[in-house]
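Researcher: Here's the sequence for the chain we discussed earlier.
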Amino acid sequence: MASPELPTATSVSTYSIGQLTSYFLRLGTFGFGGPVALVGYMHSDLVETRRWISEAEYKEGLTLAQLMPGPLAAQLAIYLGYVHYGVLGATAAGLAFVFPSFLMVLGLGWAYAEFGGIGWMQAVFYGVGATVIGIIALSAWKLTQKTVGRSPLLWGIYAASAATTIVTESEPILLFLGAGVLVWGVRAAQQRRAAAISLPAIALPTVLQTPLVELLTQIALFFTKAGAFVFGSGIAIVPFLYSGVVKEYGWLNDQEFLDAVAVAMITPGPVVITVGFIGYLVTGRGADFWTGTAGATVAALATFLPCYLFTVIPAPYFKKHGKRPGIVAFVDGVTAAAVGAIAGACLVLGRRTVFGDGWTPDWIKVALLVLTVTLLMRFRKLPEPFVVLGAAVAGLLIYPLVHG
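Model: Thanks. This is the structure I predict for it:
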C-alpha cells in the first residue's frame, strides 16, 4: 500500500530494539527471493509501512552496503539496526537476520553429508543443477545491465574479468582492486584539476581465527577473504567461492558446489549463508554432527564478521564521505569486474553442468536450463525458490528413468 509523504530526516526512534530484532528474525525466516528482494522488503516494511526508518536513512544504508564488500542485504540490515540503536541495534539486527537461515543450512548440510549418496538426493540435485545455472545467468545479466551501463571503460573491465575467469577458472582479487583503482584514476583525471580525492582511512577488521585445527584455520582464513573482498549482492560471491572451494582447496567437486548454490536459492535470508552449508560439508563429511557444526559456524562467522565491521565502523562517518566522486568511481570499477567474473563463472559452471566431463550435452539438463530462463523472463515475479523446487520434483521423476 502506497504511503503519502515519507519522512526524510533522521527521526527519533518509534520502536523498541525488541521489535527491531523480532522483525529481522521474521525476515530471516521467511524472506525468500535473494538480496534484491530482501532489500525491497526492508524498504516496504520499515520505510513505507511502519515508518521506523526514514527514506534518507534507508538510502544511506543502501549506498553504504553497495560501497562496502560483503553481502548486500545483511549489511543493509546491520546499518538499519545501527540507525537508532547504534552498535547494539546493528548486532541484534544482523544476528536475527542471519541466524534462522544458518540453522536451516546446518540441517541441510547434515542431511546432505549423511544421505548425499542415496538415490533421491542425487535425483533432486540432478534437476536442480541446470536450473541454478539458469538463475545465476539471469542474475548476472541483470547485474550487468544495472552496473555497467554504457561506459566503454566499465565494459572493458567487465570483459577482461569475464575472460580471466573463463580461462583461469579463478577470480584474482588483485584484478578487482586494480579495476577500482583504474576507474578512480581515469575519472579523477577527467575532472580537470579537481581537488585531490582521497579515500578515507577505514580500519580493517581483525581476521577471526580459530587455530585449534588446521582445517578450521583454513576455513576461517578463506571465508574471511570472501567476506572482506567480495563486492556486490549475494550472488557475487559465487565465483570467488568456486575459485577457492573447488579449484584451490578441492573441498567440494563441481556438482557439490552447484548443490551448495542450490541450497542458497531454496533457503530464506541472505544467499551467502550457504557458506554454512559448505563449512559443514568440509568438516562434517565422515565425522559427527558437532564437527560439521564447527565447520559451518567458523565459515559463517568468518564471512559475516567482516561485513559487520565494514558496516558498523564507517557508519558514523558515512554521511560525510560516502558520496565523494573518488569513492563512487572506485566502487564502479570493482563492481564491473565483479559482475564480469560472475558471467565468466556462469559459463564455466554451465559447461560442466550441461556437458559433464566431455562435449556431449545432457539434453535434459539443457531443457531444464532453457525452461528456467524462459519462465523467469516471462513471469518476472515468479519466486526463484519455486522454480528450484519444481526442478527438484522434475529431477525426482526423470533421474530414475535416465539412470535406471
